[in-house]
Amino acid sequence: MLQWPYGIRGAVSLTYDGLLFSHAEIALPLLDEVNFRGTFFAESARLMEFFSIWRGAVTQGHELGNGALMPFEHCLDDFDLELAASECWDTRELLRTVGAGATAFAWPANTPSVHHAARFRPITDQYSLVRTGLDGMNHPESLTIGALRSVLMDGHSADELNNLVDQAQDEGRWLILNFAGIGEGEPSVDRAAHEDFVRSLEARQEIVVGTLSRVAELLGWPPKLA
Q: Which of 153, 173, 86 is nearest to 122 (CA)?
């Protein structure tokens, strides 16, 4: 049975979808300033556009995962498996060129049903960690590492985010926050709310803030070699 190490009562993972401009210009510098590491899910086009920035992020300890299917979120239920596999493979290879381990995969956060499709198993089985669009937190005693729940950030205030962390700590859960835009687009959160929240995490003593891989390792989950 997986459980938290002594003195730890829960964990928070900050994940960001799509390698947006706001992730490079706002999230990365802030996380580096407070010495947190985030998990960023990549689409190949944006990874190529800002290649040097994200290669540097990996060097600094941030995690880059495969988010190749995010642009197809509105048609994934009917998406051709061969095309999906090709998109994921191309992004996986590109991630390796920036030094990313390519062990984490994410479905778009607003497609909670697609992870149930058995036909996608040949894709997801290649990854140690799979973040789904299922809403909620993860408890170590009932953790499914290949179907991690997350909470989509959409207009949340800093207070609302801190309330989620309070709940995770009280219940001993792993809270995976899923950010899209920061001060831009939909869904998104206000830039000031994001900054206030991230800085408030510095004061937490019994909550671990780490990448998906780091928290999984903390729980004793053996990583799958990429």
A: 86
Strand residue runs (E) in 23-170:
39-42, 63-66, 104-106, 129-135, 148-152
Cis omega (within 30 of 0) for bond into 187: yes
Distance CA 92, CA 73 (A): 18
Q: Where are the beta strands (DSSP E) in 75-206?
A: 104-106, 129-135, 148-152, 174-179, 181-182, 188-189
Q: Is 106 left (phi over 0), alpha (psi -120 to 50) or beta?
A: beta
- Per-residue confidence of the chain (226 residues) as pLDDT tens digits? 578 888 899 999 999 999 999 999 999 999 999 999 999 999 999 999 999 999 999 999 999 999 998 888 777 777 788 888 899 999 999 999 998 877 899 988 777 766 556 778 888 888 989 998 889 999 998 888 888 999 999 999 999 999 999 999 999 999 999 999 999 888 999 999 999 999 999 999 889 999 999 999 998 876 544 4
Give the separation between CA 44 and CA 87, rounded to whole angstroms. Answer: 9
CB contact at 8 A, 151 and 112:
no
What separation in angstroms does the CA of 190 have from each of 26, 32, 182, 183, 194? Answer: 11, 19, 6, 5, 6
H/E run at residue 216: helix 212-218
Residue 213 CA to residue 128 CA, distance in Å, equals 9
Rounded to an integer, what distance in angstroms lies between the CA atom of residue 159 and that of residue 69? 32
Confidence (pTM): 0.94
